[in-house]
Amino acid sequence: MKKTVLSLLFLGILLSSAYAETVMLFSEEPTGIGNERDSIIYIEDGIMDVFFSAGHIIFNGGYQQFEPESAAAQSTFGDTPSFRIAKSGGADYMLQVQLEFTQDDQDSLPVKALYSFYHLNSEEKLAGGEVLLTEAGEREEMEEEVLIRRMGRHVGTRAMEGM
Question: Is 137 a domain residue?
Fold first, then answer.
C-alpha cells in the first residue's frame, strides 16, 4: 500500500512539472531605417533563450506586417490578427516586439525594442515597455549580434516578470 501511495505521489509530481505554459512571440514591422532582418533574428533568439531557460514553451509567430488601416480598424485586442493566431495555436501568452531604428541610415542597429506581453484568456496586458540598446552593454565592447541578443534577453526577462 505504501508503495502504491508513493508511486502515485511521485507520478503526480512528475506530471505537474511536465506542464509548461506556452508563449507565442511576434515581431512587428520595425520603425526607422536599419538592419531589420538580422536584428529581428537576434532579438528573437535572446527572448526565446530566456523563456526556454525558465521552462516555458515559446513559439515564434514570425514577422508580422499588418496594414495600418486594418490594424486601426480593429476595435479590441482580441480582434487583432496576432491575437487570433496565438489563440488558435493554443498559446497561453503572447509577446509582441517592435524594434525602433533611427530615421537615417548611419546606424544599422536598433535604438530600442518596444514590447507588450499579454495573457490570452483574460486579454490582460501583463507587461509592456521598452528596452534601450544601451541597457544591453557598450557597443565598442561586443559584436552587434551579441549586443542585440542581450537586448532580447532583457525584453524576455521583463516580460516574464509580468507572469
Answer: yes
Whole-angstrom CA distances from 76 to 14, 25, 51 are 39, 19, 27
What is the total count of domains within the chain?
1
Strand order, beta sheet including 93-100: 57-64, 22-31, 93-100, 112-119, 124-132
Query: Is 49 among the domain residues?
Result: yes
Domain hosting 43: range is: 22-160
How many other CB atoms are found less than 10 A from the CB of residue 52?
Answer: 13
Give the chain's length. 163
Contact of 43 with 114, CB cutoff 8 Å:
no
Whether the full predicted model's pTM is greater than 0.70, yes or no, is yes
pLDDT along the chain (163 residues), means of 10: 49 49 90 88 96 93 59 53 83 93 85 94 92 88 91 96 89
Rounded CA-CA distance 87/98 in Å is 20
Rounded-to-integer distance, Cα 118 and Cα 99, Å: 18
The CA distances from residue 81 to 67, 70, 72, 94, 137, in Å, are: 11, 10, 12, 12, 34
Q: How do strand 112-119 and strand 124-132 relate by DSSP bridges?
A: antiparallel
Question: For position 39, which CATH number holds?
Answer: 3.90.950
